Amino acid sequence: MKAWAIGGIAFAVVIGALLPLQALINARLGAQTQGPLYAAFVSFLVGTCLLGALLLATRTPLWPAQPLAALPAWIWLGGVIGAAFVYAATLLVPTLGAGAMICLVVLGQVLGSLALDHYGVLGTQRPIDLLRVLGGVLVIVGAALVVRPWQPH
């Protein structure tokens, strides 16, 4: 395996490990301030400032070569989805717990990814086969074992 692939895998695992911490921090911020919407806003504000500083530090042009209005309307959904995730995590962690919330998010990611890959949405088509379905079923079973919806909390 190439070094860049190993580095990319390690980076993805570290970021994945930090997501529940982000949700817990945001939930605590929401509990100590104006609520989950405020905490999600502050989280995005801090992230926007950091990314802006990185753009400046790397001398990345702030404006794309083509006008923003020329981009397809769906391109803005990435920010909407990111904001929805941060808000949902901030809202749900206090009631579901970090483990259950992240497991359910991963379940949604796997099922959604299988569908997007199968139809080749915005990328190479990777049809669903028996092994991929089995992987999805295992994720469903794993999420159920962590969330335990049959037990009262």
Automatic annotation (TrEMBL):
Signal peptide: none annotated. The keyword Transmembrane applies. Pfam families: DMT_YdcZ. This is DMT family transporter. It comes from the Bacteria. It comes from Luteimonas aestuarii. The keyword Nucleotide-binding does not apply. InterPro entries: YdcZ (IPR006750). One of its GO terms (cellular component) is plasma membrane. Keywords: Membrane, Transmembrane, Transmembrane helix. The chain crosses the membrane at residues 37-56, 68-90, 96-116, 128-147.
